[in-house]
Amino acid sequence: MAKFTVTRLLETAQILATPVGQAIPGFFDYMADFVQQTAKALRLGLTFADNFACEVKTVSLTNNTAQIISASKVVTGIIPVRVISQSIGLDSFAWYYDDNGRLTVRARFIGETLPVSYEVTDTDAVDQMVEQYVAPPTGAHDVVLVILF
Question: In 3D, which of 148, 139, 147, 114 has the Cα closest to residue 64?
Fold first, then answer.
């Protein structure tokens, strides 16, 4: 796919040569600048910190435990972006204001997979099956959150 360029999206030289372009050149200069900045942002990637009213914060959370966190403004949403771990993943996440008005989060993590064996007692030809068991993680785990205002 072709990349966005100002000349492909808004041919300012051609527009400014028309009677309308000569009557309101400031508008077309503004639009050319707007299109260029938009195309550049889309090409280089948008960031939460630069483009949204938010706070990016790393917090330490314990599995399935409600924890109070702080925010500088009234929160409208929280997005868990990343668990800083090579063996722990995020299974579920919730946030709410508790009865005392404190911002509270709760995360459930997926732990390491452990092999578990058991005997099958039916008459099938299978004597033994191996199943995977996910051990609940222990301790606290760092999670990067985007707190939206």
Answer: 139
